[in-house]
Each structure stands twice: as structure tokens, then as C-alpha cells.
Fold each of these.
Amino acid sequence: MMQTHMGKAQVDRPSARLSLAYIWVAYAAFGLAALAGMLQGMVRGGLIELPSWTNYYQILTAHGVLMALIFTTFFIVGFLLSGVAKTTGGSLHGTALGLGWIGWILMTVGTAMAVVTIVTNDASVLYTFYAPLKASPFFYIGAALLVVGSWFGGFAVFSSYRKWRRENRGKMSPLFVFMSVTTFVLWLIATIPVAVEVLFQLIPWSLGWTSSINIMLSRTLFWFFGHPLVYFWLMPAYIAWYVCVPRIIGGHVFSDSLARLAFISLLLFSMPVGFHHQLMEPGISPGWKMIHVILTLIVVVPSLMTAFSMFATFETTGRKKGGVGLFGWFKKLPWSDVRFFAPFVGMLFFIPAGAGGIINASNQMNAVVHNTIFITGHFHITVGAAVALTFFGVSFWLIPVLTGRTLTPTANRMGMVQTVFWSVGMFLMSYAMHYLGLQGSPRRTSFTTYMDHPLAVGWLDYQRVMAFGGGLLFVAAILLILILGYLTFFAPKGNTEYPTAETETEQHTPKILERWPVWLGVLVLLCVLAYGLPIAEQLTHNPPGSPPFRTW
Amino acid sequence: MHLHRYEKIWLILGAGGLALFIVLLCVNAFAMGMAPPSNMEMIDPTKVSETPPFDNPGLKKISDTEYDAYMTAFAFGFNPNKMEVPAGAKVNFHVTSPDVVHGFQIPGTNVNFMVMPGHINSASYTFEKPGEYLILCNEYCGAGHQVMATTIIVK
Ligand SMILES: [Cu+2]
């Protein structure tokens, strides 16, 4: 529908309302999660003690669930739906809108169930809910609703994609849509194993219908999902890097076909790799572990492609604006525009994050850092910095687009301050975490000196640095919510552009990249090869099962 | 599909480096015998305290320089609680859990593995330097997780 009376909206009202509903649940969860995170940092630094009605592991569960599962999933569904609406003509059709709202309702109900069980201390099992720790069945049901709800977000994207292709026969789909479809294909397939775990193992067992559980199998199913989950966070950030950031700096997409190829590779190689999270576990032979290690490391290739594309776009754009010499183009980039600055800082964080990831995934090196706070430091610079800063950068323009308002220069400046606070906080905290992890300090552990063991006492100074970083992050989180509240309700009315870049010249993207049956076939084959035999083994040669335990 | 010349170079160098790295990992794991702890032995988790040798956890001397340490990791401690070995001794740790999943880590060494109910996991380490080594649980196991630790004294 044309909205001639109020200028050309980038996304029509019904679609905008849907996206905004997702994004605000995301930021409500983010705010609570940030509070829980800050308190954890303070406890671990030995600066405060929690009141008797709560405990460290309860707020750790809240932080993990709200930040890693709820904030990310809601934001991603909201962001991708908005971009699909924008790039397929400015609106979602009736079916897609309906699916989108069903998803939102299921996810919100699931979130409420999870939060209530965490608050009543019936689910202090952390967001990885490892059996045989047994949470309230409502916690698992809530998690299942969250996942199933997000599938409906994916169905909404697929239905828009199908409609677009019907109406534009023979044409390549818009890059944003293609990437959103890839992201949700990954998500749908990746969540099947965890759905199996929750529905067939955890829920019946936590309700008492079955007396014991095959732990090895539950962990394998969890990590079958748990690693692609990381790519479900990362790919929407990549979409913003590939499609939105080039437009913000006044440039073009470097190469349409390479961008699509990178996404297909991410889809294929992020799935059959879960054993690299289980390298230090018994019951999986070293051969299978090595196969997953190799497949994991192959993901380095699409990451290298992405790095090249990003910097190629930056350089071409900078040169076109008159930047000369080897690095002159660098100065021509819009450093004072938070829509560019925040995701750019995120990209910088991703460089050490990738290096850390290689360490974690590598067999023997993993023994040094496994389950130490190094791991916590690692995912705080991947998800907490690279992905989160990109999502913040997106929010600064997406919320004005959706509310029909504008990002004022003052709000932009506040956003810059917020980005700096978040980055410095994240840098200090994760630096301390990486350092402590290499000394052997464990993750997921409340304040302790292990009966004043000199080694553990020596960790205290760095734990205080972590706490200080956490404090800065909390300030940045509050500031962010204030800015986003302003952009939602108070910023001046106006038209804000939804930045989506095109390629500079007509490019011929190979048709094969859009043949889904081919890629799904390859993916299923890879998963069967990587998981078929080990899972068959875990089903047949498994030890007697475990009864449930509540140890908190 | 067009690949920029610099991109080709970039990807060839990257993928080549990666391939070399993978070969080194394989050599390290299989030729040099440094595969991660992947013990395949199983045990009934509800009968750990009745199953030898875990019915009587502790150090078993193999020779003057080698010991087997049979240990259980439970919420929230390790059994045995104190162990003493001479400097230069190689200790083979064999650990299982009668309840939930725990971690087993000795900071400053490469001993770091998961202890899962139903399985026995193991790793070896030669303690060259005397001292009091901390053994801690690095997987969340409940409200008292932070106190779950013990020591091994090397004299
Ligand atoms: Cu433990």
C-alpha cells in the first residue's frame, strides 16, 4: 500500500509495529540481563555479597538466558523481518504478518515461563541446562516455546521470499532476503536436535514420566544446536555488515555472489561441528572429535571472505571520496556516525575473537582453556562485542525507521559515547577474563579463594578488573536503553532511510547459489556423516541412565 | 563468479595456512599421542560407591615413579581429599561422578577434563616440581560449586 500522505515510508505501519514489538522485548530482556551481569561481576570481584534471597548461579542463569537466548533471538527476528519487508517492496503481506505475530506471542509466553521459573529459583541450571541437573518442567517448556515461536518468524521470512520469487520470476532475490532465508534455514535445522532433546528427553524426565536420562546423548544433541546457535547470532550481524554498512558509508556491496557464497558456506560448515564443544568429554573417540575439529576450522574460510569484502568496500568508498595513498581512504570513513562506528568497532573485536575461537576449537590447545573463564572472555568479545555492537548500531537507525522518527545529532553523539563505554568495558572485562583463564581460573564459579590457596588469591586483582569492566558495561546498557527509548517515543518525526546497499555494476550471480534443494542435500549429508555413527553409538553403547538431581 | 586477484591471494594464503595447521593438529593428536581425554569406559552412576576400584578411592602405586589415582567427583567435593606423591611421579587420574557433571582441572598443567556420570575419564601428568597443586571443579554443579576443590601435594 502506498502511503502518499506521509511521504514514502521505508517499512509500512503494520510491518513496523511487528518488528518494533520484537525489538522492544529484546531490549527489555537486555536491560535485565545487563543488571544481572553487572551484579555477577561485582560478586566475582569480591566487592559485594548478594542478599540471602538470591544467589550467584540464579543471576548467572538469568544473565545467560536473557542475554544469549532472549535478547538475541527477539532482536534477530525483528531485524530480519523489517529488512525483508523493506527489500521486498516496503511491506510484509498478510500471511507473513500473521506468522510473525504468532511467533511473537509464542516467544513472549515462553520467555515469561522461563523468567518466572528462574525468579522462583526452580531453574538455576544456566542456559545450557545440562542434565542431570533438573529444572522445573515449565523452564524447559518455556525454552521450547521460545524456539518454536522463532520458527514462525522464519516461516514469515520464507513466505515473503516465496511470494517475491513468484512475482519476479528468473531474477535473483534481494541480498538481504537471501541472507535472511539462509539464516533461518540454519536456525530451523539447528534447533531440531535441541527440540528433540527438550521434548523427548528433558520434559518427560523432569515431569517424572521417565526415571533416567542418557546424558551423553543429551549433551550431543545440545551441542549439535549449540554451535550453529553462535552463527545464528553472527549471521544477522554479517547481514548488517554486508548490506547495511556499505550504504551508510555511501558505498556499494563489494560482490553479490561472494556474499551469497559466504553465507552458504556458513550454513554448511557451522552445523556438523558440535563435538569441538565436547573435546574434553569421555565417550566420544578422538577420531570423531578430530573430524569435527577439521570441519570447525573450515569456517575460517568464509570469515576470511567476509573480512576481505568489508575492507574492500571501505577502501573503494574511501578512495572515491578522495582518499589517497596507502591508507588515506581510511580517514574518509564517517567516524562520527554511530551507525558506522558501532559496527566497525564490533568488527575490530571480531579479529581477536576469531583467533581465540581457533584456540578453543583446536584439540590440544583446548585443554589449557576448556571451561576456564577464557571461554567467557571469548564469547563476550564475539557475541557481547562484535554482534551486540552491530545490533546497537542497527538499532540507532532501525528504531527511527520503524517509528517514523529521526536520529538527531545529539542522539548520535550519545550513541558514540555509549559505544565507547561499551567497548572499553568489554575490552577490560574480556582481557582480564582471557588472562585469568590462561592461569586456570574457572568459568561459571561464584567468588572463591579455594580455602585461600595462593594461586586463587593471586587471581583477585584481575577479578576486580573484570568487575570494573562490568560496571562500565552496565552504565553503557542504561545509556543505550535511554537513547532507544528517546528514539521510540520522543525524537522528532521524519523519514529515516533504511540503509540497504546495491552492487555497483550489474553482476551475474551463479544461479546455483539459490538452489535450496542442493544446499539442503549437502547439509543433511554432512550432518549424517558427522553425527550418524556417533549418535547410533550413544544410543546402543550407553551406560545406565542418570536420575535427576537438584543441587541448588 | 568473479574473484578479485587480491582476494584470491588472500584466500590461498589463508586456506593454505589453515591446511598446515590442521595437519599439525592431526600429527599432534595421533602421531604424538596427545589426543584429548576421551576415555570410553563406562560405569553405573547409581552404583559408584559399590563398584571397585571406586568403592575405595585413592592412590594405587604402580612403581616408584608411577601412580594410579582413582577418584570420585561429587557435589561438592573430591574423594580422596588429600593425596601425596614424590616429585617426578607420573599420576594417571581416573575419575567418575555418582551425581551430576563435574569438571576436573589442575591449573598450571594440561590436566583438564569433564567428569560425567556413567563414564570414567582419565588423563596423566608427570609432576616434576614440588608444591601443593590445586584440583578444582570447573563445571557448574550446584549451589556449592565454588568450594569444590582438593589438592595434591608433590614432595
Ligand atoms: Cu562440581
Amino acid sequence: MNQFIGRMLTNRINPVHQISHAGLWLVLLCALSSGALAQLSTDTSLSQSALHPASSQAQDIELLWWIMFWASVIIFTAVMALLAWGLLSGRRRPSVLSSTASMRFVLVAGVAIPALVLSALVGGSLMLGRSIASTPPPDALQVRVTGWMWWWEIEYLDDNGEVVATTANEMHVPVDRPVAVELESGDVIHSFWVPRLQGKTDMVPGKTNNSWFTATETGEFRGQCAEFCGLQHALMAFVVIAQPEAEFANWLQRQASPASAPETEAAQNGLAVFEQNCGQCHRIRGTNAIGNLGPDLTHVASRSTLAAATLPNKRGHLAGWISDPQRIKPGNNMPRTLLSPQELDHLLVFLDSLD
Amino acid sequence: MQSTATYDHDPASTQLLSRTWESPPGVLNWFTHVNHRQIGYRFVVTSLVFFALAGVLALIMRLQLISPENTLLGPDLYNQLFTMHGTTMMFFFAVPAMEGLGIYLAPLMIGTRDMSFPRLNAFGYYVYLIAGIALYTSLFLGMAPAAGWFSYVPLANIAFSEGRGMDFWTTMITFIEISALAAAVELIVTILKQRAPGMTLSRMPLFVWAILVMSFMIVFAMPTVMAGSVLLALDRAFFTQFFVAAGGGDPLLWQHLFWFFGHPEVYIIMVPALGIISSIIATFTQRPIFGYTALVLSLVATGFVSFGLWVHHMFTTGLPHLGLSFFTAASAMIAIPTGVQVFCWIASLWGARIRFATPMLFILGFFAIFVIGGLTGVMVASIPFDSQVHDSYFVVAHLHYVLIGGAVFPFFAGLYYWYPKMTGRLMSERLGRWSFALIFIGTNLTFFPMHQLGFEGMPRRVYTYLADMGWQDLNFAITLAAFVLGTGFLLTLINAVISRSRGDLAGSNPWQAETLEWATTSPPQNYNFRHLPVVSSRTPLWDQSDADRLECVAGLRADRRELLVTTLLEARAQSVLIMPNPSIWPFLLSLAVGFGFLGFMFEPWLFVVGFALSFFMIVGWLWPKKPWLDGEQSYDQSHDQC
């Protein structure tokens, strides 16, 4: 290799010279790919990494990826090595492959081997694809998710397909039990994607798509809209919280019930402020706020995030969001709400009580 | 190999021929030129301008993504920029650039004097220019389309994309396809009917084969996107319901129409690139390429199969799994003709003493980059895997590897290779090497890490991301690398501009190549060839019995534009075609058509005005005119001199 580098340096000025850069490229590419691979274990609190699967479906896909990855490394190395070998073989004594040898070379390397590898890949991925596309088991939890610009509406259905509970931007699921998700859209095409749980499925207006997964560990898994859906596509996210069956059942029961009546005076004032200013768009079950343009806020205080998983659900963030949502998510459909400081304070007290 | 010099025995007749084929001088006459070399050259230069513009947009986008929650661009501007970047690169750079090379080179490579329909050629160029200018005007007016270059409905429909942006998009897409179709029809007729006598189909240069296949693909692919964009324009302007689910339409219909064009589109760009590679490898190894027939068949196979895999862009839309499986198989299958090509080239390079000049460096760069893109391409053909990486940065990485590796590297190789033919001068080798090194390194550093971002769940087309996502380090590095890549491209553009006046003189055949375009001066004379050559092998310039001359045809008139028409398969001389003269009418017609379409966006009745104007322009275009110069009737009777 030093020889190549030396030759390259001494020959740089000569416009037409006879050295091979292929070796250098190989080194460069290997360095690049190993550098990138070393980083593949990056993990953060909001990880959406498909390489850290937390469901049986995502695990299968990850396995498929690693098989394809190693096959590709071998193929890439082999092609580059053949190219380099071919180029180097002419440096001292130019030669020509006989046409029979060339023909055999092209038939084997260009037709037979790819055909075998591709058949294996197509076969394998079709079988896996079929299991992922199959209908979910009958005991699966039924959830309907509707995509809106730019938030998620999540409805839990009972065995008869009736809505039991409605929430937004936060989905709770039991671990080790299949969850069947019906996917719909209220406006444009969105795509439901929780990389650690399942590959994406689009939400197409006028069509109901289906997806299902079985979370195999408890935890919080972030999901994000994957189909470009306009101005705030970037900040259309949600969280899936996988929890033990009993915990989940408690949570669902709580979500199904209407909001508890405000107890303090401030909270009662807050309810009035809400009904007057927010009730045309938002709904709180058990009150006069029955709007259906924005998220159902019945148990908003129990959620961990605001504005479709853009901000942690803290009082300060909530105040900032209500006062000027356009600063946080420019172009979203919520207008500024002009409230006196006291009204805002009461509103926050009321919303805080909705756990 | 100054093969033309010896033909010029009769200066008076040569001068007359030059005057007959001259494009009128002067800036005002610029709009009357119809010659294929002028039009091809303009296509290439204009496409490079758009390439630079789209590159600048990409760099601005990378600046926005350099850090999480950056506020350099708002979502609205960012969405306009990525829409314009994709639209420009696909429609205003890649296809016109390849067509431009084809328009410039194919007639020279098949040994004829011009294309079959020179005025249509000029019309196609002006339509392209008007479309590009209009689209960029919309960007600078702040009302560019913002629904992505794929313009999925319902987002692109009037309910969710108000304003003129999408109207500009639908109109300009229709426009640019008119241009592409005009060029394609012309290239097909020219290649099939105007080859030099003796250039049978099996002796045609591989680049010409590639241009022929590309042209047929355009003819079949472009009409679907035109149909789509017209239906979308109707939905927007007259509230028809083709794509509106609530009105009985189907948003997926758009995706089918779009990708039935959009996937072949990728190969429309790549197939000519494959032709460029074959030309350069043959020249730089100084021996015929191995597997001519296999290469031709795999070009044709690529063309066919590319129409059978558009649904792999729609794996996540919820279509039935069995139907999707077909497209998995088709998508994997296209790897086989590609494999045949790659290994034919490796076999051709085997044991050769190669000159590592810049064009060859770009070809070797192509191998590394394109193989990676091809491998990830096979991966995304797998339905379950695609469901994870579709619309993530993995696909951004994949498509840039394929397009930069498969089209930009070969195109730049071709630029360095044919620049001396077009300008008479060589590009600077030193700048070329620096440019290549920066482009190669920049491409890998920019796009390789994007694979990983995709696995980490970063979706495409996001103008921002949260600090906690863990994506900032890679994004920071990618932004820096993008500027390395940008510098590499800039060096080639600078090189092209400087070398135009300062490069070393090239001579007619600086690379000792074998195909006919090198059998004439650089740049070629007005008439391309003093005598139309006669061909008896695949590598005419290497196989001449007498080093200085090709056999040739004589007897065409020098005082009017005449071409030889030959038979389709065997290229036997068949008849003489009289070509039209330079004319302003194609330019005026393109203005009238542009007025009609652009006016329609503001006042529907302006379309009628544009239609009426177009009618007059067409009458002017077709008005009969004497095709020869006065008083100088002359036949070239110098049979014995060639």
C-alpha cells in the first residue's frame, strides 16, 4: 500500500499515469463503514432506533437486516476486490481475459451468484413479510389511531368495536399481548411508525389500514409520522407506553371515565375559561366542552408530553403552548389564546387536575 | 488521427457547405439556432446551472439541520427548499443533462449532420428553459411548491396547498415532460434512420444504444406523469375529484401514476450513464469492450424491468401483501442486468494498462458508490425491511448513492471526456483530480452516515428534530461533509468555465477513442462531417486500413441542408432528407405556449389567448420556404477524394 501512495504522490502532476487508486478507496470505505458501525449503539432517552427492537415483529426485521448487511459486506468487498485485482493485473504486463474466460466470469459473478442470493433474499423476506402482514390473533387489543395535521387521535375499542376511551398522542399497551391497530386519516396521508415496535404503515384518507405488534418489554417508545404531511410533519410524534397487563387495565379504566369535577374555586374558574375559549375545538368528557377539531383533553394531566410529543408535559410548557402555540410549532392549527394572567393561571390549575 | 484534414480538397465547396449549415451569428440570432450541437450544448450548460442551484438549496437545508431545533429556516421555507431540490435535480438537471449529451453526441457518433427535427429540438429546449425560469421565479417570490417533488395528494390538492406553488409545479412538470418527449422522439428517429451507411444496429456505439433505450423509456413513462399532473391541475382548478377520497376518487391513484413514471425515471437517468461508462472504459483501456451484445441486452432488459417495480415505492400504503410480493421479485430482478453490466466492465478492465485521467477516476468512483447504492436498493426491495426504513434517512442515503453514483459520477466523467469535443480544449487535469477526490470523499461522508440516521428513526423531510433524539452529532458531521461535496462540484464547474478559454488545445481525438464523433474537428464544424463516413466495424477509428481516412459518402448538395437517410437495421443508404433552416418560430411558439399555461394559473381565459397565439406560431413555423442558398447550386462530386 505504501508503494501506491508513494506512486500517487510522485505522479500527481503527470496528467495521464498508471497507478491504481482502488486500494486506497477500499481502505477509505472500510474506515468509513467501521466508524459508522461503531456508533450504531447510540442510545438516548427518546431513542427511535430500529436496531433496539422491543417487539417480536421489530426483532424479526432487525434479524433480516443483519443478514442482509453481512451479505452486502461480502458482496461489496468481493466486487471491489475483483475490480482491484483486474486493474492491478495489468500494471506490469497487460493481458486480456480470453472471451471464454470473460463469458464464464460474467455468467458466474454477474448472473448465477446474484440470482442465488436474490432468490434467497426474496424468499426469506416474503415469508417474514407474510407473517407480519398476517391478521392479528383474536385476543389482540383493538386500537384505532387516526392521523390529523399534526397530532394523533387514539381510540380503544371493545369487542363490539365500540369506543371505550379516547386519548391523544400517547398510546398505552400491555406487554406480551398482541395489539391490533386500525389506521385512518382525517386529512392528508400520514404514516404510523414506532421503529422499536413495528415498521410503518400509511394512514390514507378513505382507507383503513392495519398493523399489529406484540411489545416484549415494558418501556416508553417514541413514534413519529413518517409520510410528509405538510408544515409540521417534523413535530408530529407520539409515545407508546408498554406496561404490565394489570397496570394497563387500570390505566384504561381511568381513561374511559369522564373527567372528575373541579374541586377548588380556581379549578372551577379554569373550567369556565376552558369552556369559553377552548371548547369549540377540544373536548373534555363530562363538561360542556365538546369540540372535535383538536385532541380530547379529558385526562390531559396524565400524559407525559404536549403538542404531539414535542414538549414534556410541565406547567410552564403548557402555559407557553396555550399563549403562543405558533412559536413552538409554526403553522399548526391552534390559534393563540388571549387570556388574562389570572385566567391563564386558573386554566392551568384546572388542566392540572385532569389526571 | 487527423482524419478529416485530408478530405478538404475543395475549399470553395467546403466553404459553401459551412455557410449552408451555419447558425446565424450574433446574440439576436441566438433564438433562431436549431443545430443539434448548439441545442445539446445549451441543454448541458443549462442543466448544470440548475444542478448548481439545487446544490445550493441542499446546502441551505443542511445548514438548517446542523443542530437540533435550529431556527434558520421555518418549516414553510424548508418544505419549499426540499421540494425544489428534488424537483430540480430529477426534472431540471438529470434528464436534461443526459438528453443534452445525447442530442450533442448521438448525431456525431452515428455520423450524420443534424437531428431529424431540428426545430422541434429547439422548441424542446425553450420549453425547458421557460419551465425552469418560471419555477425558480416562484421560489424567489416566496410561493414555490412545498408538497415534495412527489406531490402526494391530498396534501398537494387545493384544500391543503393553497396558493400558486402547486399550480407552478403541475404546469412546469407538464412543460418539462413536453420537452423530454420532444427530445426522445427526435433521438429515436435520428438514431434509427440516420446512421452512417454500414453502421448496422450491432455496430452502433453503446452510448447510442443507451440513448435509444432512454428515449423509448421516456416515451412510455412521461405520459403517465403528464396525465397525473393534468388530473391534479383539474382537481385544483375545477374541483374534480380524481384524487379526493370523499368524492369517490383515490389518493393512491396519484401514487400509481406518479411512480409508474417515477421509478423508470431513475433508470432514464441511469441508462445513458451506463452508455457513458462503456464509452470511457473502451477508450481508456484502448480495446473493445467485452460483451457488447450482453451489454446491449442488459440495457434493454433494464429498460423493460424498470417499468415493473414502481409499487416498491408504495410498500407501506397498505396494498395486499401478495400483490406487493410481485414487486419485490421484480425489484430484485433488476439487479441481474445491472450485475451483468458491472462484470462486463470488470472483465473489460481486466489486465488492461489504464490511463487514470479524470474521466477514468470518475468511472472507478462510480463502481464503489453505485455498488453500495445497488446493495441498499436490493435491501429496500424487501417488504418488511422497507417498512422500517421507508421515508427515513436510510432511503435518503440509498437514493443519493444510486443517483450520485449511477448518474452524477458517470455524467461528470462524460463531461471531462467530451469537453474537448465540445470546446476544442481539455479541462484542467489537476483541478479535475482535486474535484474528483473531494466529490468522492464528500459523497461518502455526507451520505453514508445517513443510513445510520435512518436506523435511529430520523424521518425524511423534517425541518427540525428535538435535541434529545441523539441525532445531532451525525447531522453536524453530515452538514460539514456536504460542504466538502459542494466544493468538489464547484471545482468542476470552475474548471469547465476556466478551461473554455485557457485549457490545452485538444486536437480532434485527444483520447485516441474509436467512435465517429472523434473523426471530426474539435469542436466540430458547422456541418459535423465534411463527407459522411461509411462504417464497417464497431470501432471505426481503430480499424481504418489507412490511418488517415475513413471511407465516405459523397454526392450530397453543399448549398442546402441535406442528410442521408438509411435503413433501420442494416443502415443501407435509402434517401436524402432536406432539412429546415434556422428559424425563430420554435422560440416564439414556446413563448406562446408558456404564456397560455402560466396565464391559466391566474386567469383561465388566458389559456385561450395562448392557444390562439400558438396557432399563429405554428403556421409561421410550417410556412413553406426555399431551403437552399440562392445562386450557388452545387453538388459535391468529389467521390474520388474521400
